[in-house]
Specification:
Radius of gyration of chain B: 23 Å
Order of helices and strands of chain B: HHHHHHHHHHH
CATH architecture of one domain in chain B: Orthogonal Bundle
Shape of chain A: globular
CATH class of chain A: Mainly Alpha
Oligomer: heterodimer
Largest interface: A-B, 86 and 90 residues
CATH superfamily of chain A: MetI-like
CATH topology of one domain in chain B: MetI-like fold
């Protein structure tokens, strides 16, 4: 009897493999090979050596760009949190109809293409735009240059990535049992202490999710920094694109891409060990 | 907290709202508020092949990407959700990997890989690349739906004598239809919106709409972009609101129908 059971479970079930095979083969060819290509090019272009990595790691331009990218991603993540948390709170504490409307707005923003939103910020912050006109109106004679600065690209990235943060925080906040809040209040928790000891721990998973997602997307952001940012303060993705498009420097581009990839995967791997990757985008 | 929340609503809404009046502007450059209004840029968009061709390319590429993605993802999702086997967790991770790799890294890889295959600057090349990027999203949506599937319904059908194939066609597929449609829609949108890989590999022949918009914003900020933005915006709004409206309308029709017609058996 024991033998039959074990032989039954030992017999490999072919079905899942058959169903999985086409996709696995597809991803192996059209996803893994291009990635391996990048890895190989980083060591072999223009000739076999470690020179590309040496330049990426020790060159002052590249160091500056990497530091700039990290600082920007950190700033964008923090700003998204400051923007997203109050909004999630507002949604959670308003009438269902209002919450529904805000959710619709956030979803619309989420589904509107990056490019459209980047373009909209270009209009808003441009020299003929409403913000400069307003500044002139209140008596600022020589308004500052807003477009094509670090300010404009950071602001636009916060706007573009905020929906990720809002949805992550809102989804955990909505599940908080109101009884917990009421009992905390009856025990005397007010204002900041209510937030610090009740809200913050209960919403921590949503905050962690949102921050990891925003930070990681921001690290590899190409479109918005290239279009709105200052050409003198590039981010990694922009510099990689520049190397490929302008100089056809595949070796340098690939080496930087590999560094970016390793950093991104390391952050996600830490996250995966603690929470599981499938929850991040769920 | 509340006041900040209201300010955030304005912050999120303002850029979405501003492109609409911009698209009706008659200024030659970015100027807001516009000096006057007309439909000139709509006319320009709908008559200019330099804009219509990328639009058509994008629709074509996104449709093909959607079809290939679904053909690959549907069986794989069944395997991963319904079976336990050695290496399953690695397979699960593999499905999500394309989401974890920054698009700029993939763009460098595709530029060289598709270049070797002479597929760079072709529709096929873009479809092959976009399919990889659409797989994780289609998989996440579909697997969430499949996990919530009550398998007793299939067991009931089979206990009543339906063959596995019949069960699949008459029970499984109809129940999964909403999930399949949404999953396919996400795959389509992912491809339609994808910008970075398209910038590097679509070239002039297979130029997609996001690539054309990117180039145009970078070079001259053609106000036609406001027109496209408005059109895309309207599509999103309709797609989000339509299900609610449709449900409301259907309920009303059903209510009217049930009121006027006697509840006769079929």
């Amino acid at each position: 009897m024991k033998a039959t059971i074990s032989s039954l479970s030992d017999r490999p079930n072919l079905w899942p493999w058959l169903l999985l095979a086409p996709l696995a083969a597809y991803l192996a060819v059209f996803f893994l090979i291009p990635l391996i290509d990048v890895a190989i090019m980083s060591f072999t272009e223009p000739r076999v050596s470690l020179a590309n990595y040496e330049r990426v790691i020790t060159g002052s331009l590249y160091q500056k760009v990497f530091i700039n990218t990290f600082l920007t991603a950190g700033l964008v993540t923090l700003s998204c949190l400051c923007v997203g948390y109050p909004l999630a709170y507002l949604m959670n504490h308003s009438k269902p109809r209002t919450a529904m409307l805000i959710l619709l707005l956030v979803t619309m923003s989420f589904w509107t293409s990056f490019l459209v939103r980047t373009y909209a910020w270009m209009v808003l912050l441009g020299n003929n735009g409403p913000i400069i006109a307003f500044l002139r109106g209140i008596g600022v004679d020589s308004p500052p240059q807003l477009l094509f600065t670090r300010f404009s690209s950071t602001l636009a990235m916060v706007h573009i990535l905020a929906p990720y943060m809002i949805m992550n925080i809102y989804s955990v906040m909505r599940k908080i049992d109101p009884v917990l809040i009421r009992s905390a209040k009856s025990l005397g928790a007010r204002g900041f202490s209510l937030f610090r000891h009740v809200y913050l721990p209960l919403t921590a998973p949503g905050i962690a999710n949102g921050c990891v997602l925003v930070f990681v997307i921001c690290l590899g952001f190409y479109v918005t920094p290239v279009l709105l940012g200052s050409p003198r303060e590039q981010m990694i993705a922009g510099l990689i694109g520049h190397q490929i498009e302008e100089f056809l420097a595949f070796g340098m581009g690939s080496a930087m891409a590999m560094v970016l990839l390793v950093i991104t995967l390391a952050i996600l791997a830490i996250y995966h060990r603690r929470f599981g990757l499938d929850r991040l985008w769920g | 907290m509340r006041l900040i929340g209201v300010l955030v609503v304005v912050f999120i809404a303002a850029p979405l709202v501003i492109v609409v009046p911009m698209s009706f502007s008659d200024a030659r450059s970015l100027q807001f508020p516009p000096p006057g209004y007309w439909l000139g840029y709509y006319h320009a968009y709908f008559t200019d092949m330099n804009w219509l061709r990328p639009t058509w390319n994008s629709i074509l590429i996104a449709t093909a990407t959607m079809v290939v993605t679904m053909v690959l993802v549907v069986p794989a999702t069944f395997a991963l959700v319904r079976h336990r086997f050695a290496g399953k967790s690695i397979a699960d991770l593999m499905m999500l990997m394309p989401l974890a790799v920054p698009h700029i890294v993939m763009a460098v890889g595709y530029y060289s890989f598709l270049g070797d295959l002479r597929l760079v600057h072709t529709h096929l090349g873009v479809v092959l690349a976009h399919t990889c990027l659409s797989v994780p999203i289609a998989f996440l949506v579909l697997s969430a739906n499949l996990k919530g599937f009550d398998r007793n319904l299939e067991r009931a059908a089979q206990s009543l004598g339906a063959s596995p194939v019949k069960t699949f066609i008459h029970v499984t597929l109809p129940i999964l239809r909403p999930g399949l449609i949404i999953s396919a829609l996400f795959a389509f949108i992912q491809s339609f919106d994808e910008t970075v890989v398209a910038i590097f590999i679509s070239g002039r022949d297979a130029e997609t709409l996001p690539r054309k918009m990117f180039d145009s914003i970078r070079q001259e900020a053609d106000p036609v972009i406001a027109v496209i933005s408005t059109l895309l915006f309207v599509v999103v709004l309709v797609a989000l609101v339509a299900p609610f409206a449709w449900r409301g309308l259907r309920n009303r029709i059903q209510m009217n129908a049930s009121r006027s017609a006697p509840p006769a058996g079929q």
